[in-house]
């Protein structure tokens, strides 16, 4: 399939054999690539200076200067290009040496057209990943109160939050643990007309059921043993502001009834009191559970669900927005390095590739904790694959291998 002209990669083929040069030029041109040729290293360096080359394919054994000299020259002077080595008499020593100085791929003669095109495709995919990671790290973050990302998925979330913020409508934020639901709730509050009033977060799952009602609605003096004085609740504290009910799915059936009334009537009754009081509060709720499934199973009130489900915003898990991993990692690394008085280390391309293919069950929170651990424990300037936790390395390898042929898995393993 021919590559569209606007996306065509430029490839420089270097070989002292005129027949090999012509064969590679014809084959690669037929696939839509822009192909330059050079019979030696000296000629190749002139082409590199005059044209923007994406991939250099060079023979290993050539008179005067060999392919390793060219690989070294490209790595030292043209960081935004990949290199592939062709070996007529491949040896383990030669392959290791080529990879060590920067060749991303190597191909043993004789090779088929399919092997050539596969190797070229892999090298260009790595180049695209490298450029994407670099651009993501350099791009201004789409950050609002800690929300960081450049992916389409997180941009969609921010657009939805921006539309919801100016109103007083109830918002339900869904997403897995660690995706940043409270950060999004804060962004909605501080971009709303209520921004100057309090934002009061309440972890419904972290407060014992016997205390939750008192904490939310407050209590009068003598309402229960130990209530020596009247105390206002979180609803009163959030007056004219926003009340964030995190993990609202963890509330009991009796508490759900009380919350429903508070949402419907915008009034609360303190524990031990017979009088209700109107409150001016915006409600933002969050859960990492499937509320419709809980409703279907009778574990969550349907009427409360519909009261909460006015505007629903779902934050996707990190594994569905892997292009944000480099940006998040670099931002966390800068912060933790600054706190420790260190210079932030550089993450190698391979380390970043492993991190992007990891499943991230703990999402952004897990990435933040990992980055902090790496910064604290790191002694050098660089962080590479061996510095990453073993489960992450193995998990990423399994993910990478799931769609590979046996030959590709063998190649990746070696």
Describe the structure.
The protein is α/β, with parallel strands linked by helices. The protein has 3 domains: 5-138, Response regulator (Rossmann fold, 3-Layer(aba) Sandwich), CATH 3.40.50; 152-316, Rossmann fold; 319-413, Orthogonal Bundle (Helicase, Ruva Protein, domain 3). 46% of the residues lie in helices and 14% in strands. The chain contains 17 helices and 14 strands. The protein has helices at 18-30, 41-50, 67-77, 92-100, 113-138, 152-164, 181-190, 209-217, 234-237, 253-265, 291-296, 302-308, 325-340, 349-357, 363-377, 390-401, 406-413; strands spanning 10-14, 34-38, 55-59, 82-87, 105-108, 171-174, 199-203, 242-246, 267-269, 276-278, 282-287, 311-314, 346-347, 382-383. A 5-stranded parallel beta sheet has the order 2-1-3-4-5, with helices on both faces. A 5-stranded parallel beta sheet has the order 7-8-11-6-12. β3, α3 (67-77) and β4 (82-87) form a beta-alpha-beta unit. α10 crosses α12 (302-308) and α13 (325-340) packs across α15 (363-377). It is elongated and about 95 Å long. The model is unreliable at 1-6 (pLDDT under 50).
Key words describing this protein structure:
single chain, 414 residues, alpha/beta, Rossmann fold, Helicase, Ruva Protein, domain 3, 3 domains, 17 helices, 14 strands, 14% strand
Secondary structure blueprint with pairings:
Layout: E1 10-14, H1 18-30, E2 34-38, H2 41-50, E3 55-59, H3 67-77, E4 82-87, H4 92-100, E5 105-108, H5 113-138, H6 152-164, E6 171-174, H7 181-190, E7 199-203, H8 209-217, H9 234-237, E8 242-246, H10 253-265, E9 267-269, E10 276-278, E11 282-287, H11 291-296, H12 302-308, E12 311-314, H13 325-340, E13 346-347, H14 349-357, H15 363-377, E14 382-383, H16 390-401, H17 406-413
Parallel strand pairs: 1-2, 1-3, 3-4, 4-5, 6-11, 6-12, 7-8, 8-11, 13-14
Antiparallel strand pairs: 9-10
């Amino acid at each position: 399939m021919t590559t569209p002209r606007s996306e065509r990669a430029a490839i420089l083929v270097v070989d002292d054999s005129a027949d090999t040069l012509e064969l590679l030029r014809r084959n690669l041109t037929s696939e839509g690539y822009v192909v330059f040729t050079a019979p030696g290293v000296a000629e190749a360096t002139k082409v590199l200076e005059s044209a923007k080359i994406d991939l250099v394919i060079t023979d290993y054994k050539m008179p005067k200067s060999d392919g390793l000299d060219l690989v070294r020259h490209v790595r030292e002077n043209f960081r935004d290009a990949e290199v592939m080595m062709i070996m007529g008499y491949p040896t383990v020593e030669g392959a290791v040496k080529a990879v060590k100085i920067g060749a991303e791929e190597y191909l043993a003669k004789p090779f088929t057209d399919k092997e050539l095109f596969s190797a070229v495709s892999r090298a260009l995919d790595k180049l695209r990943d490298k450029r994407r990671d670099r651009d993501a790290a350099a791009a201004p973050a789409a950050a609002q109160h800690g929300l960081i990302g450049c992916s389409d998925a997180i941009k969609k979330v921010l657009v939805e939050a921006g539309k919801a913020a100016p109103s007083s409508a109830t918002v339900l934020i869904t997403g897995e643990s660690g995706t940043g639901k409270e950060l999004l709730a804060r962004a909605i509050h501080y971009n709303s007309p209520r921004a100057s009033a309090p934002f009061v977060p309440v972890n419904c799952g972290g407060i014992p059921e016997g205390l939750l009602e008192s904490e939310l609605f407050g209590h009068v003096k003598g309402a229960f043993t130990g209530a020596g004085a009247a105390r206002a609740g979180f609803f009163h504290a959030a007056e004219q502001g926003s009340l964030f009910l995190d993990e609202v799915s963890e509330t009991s059936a009796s508490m759900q009834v009380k919350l429903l009334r508070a949402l419907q009537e915008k009034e609360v009754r303190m524990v031990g009191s017979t009088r209700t009081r109107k409150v001016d509060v915006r409600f933002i709720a969050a859960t990492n559970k499937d509320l419709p499934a809980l409703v279907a199973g009778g574990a969550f009130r349907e009427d409360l669900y519909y009261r909460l489900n006015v505007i629903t915003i779902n934050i996707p898990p990190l594994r569905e927005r892997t292009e944000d991993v480099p940006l998040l990692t670099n931002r966390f690394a800068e912060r933790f390095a600054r706190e420790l008085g260190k210079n932030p280390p550089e993450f190698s391309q391979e380390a970043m590739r492993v991190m992007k293919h990891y499943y991230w069950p703990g999402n952004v929170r897990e990435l933040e904790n990992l980055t902090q651990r790496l910064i604290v424990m790191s002694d050098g300037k660089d962080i590479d694959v061996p510095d990453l936790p073993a489960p992450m390395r193995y998990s990423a390898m399994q993910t990478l291998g799931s769609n590979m042929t046996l030959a590709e898995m063998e190649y990746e393993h070696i």
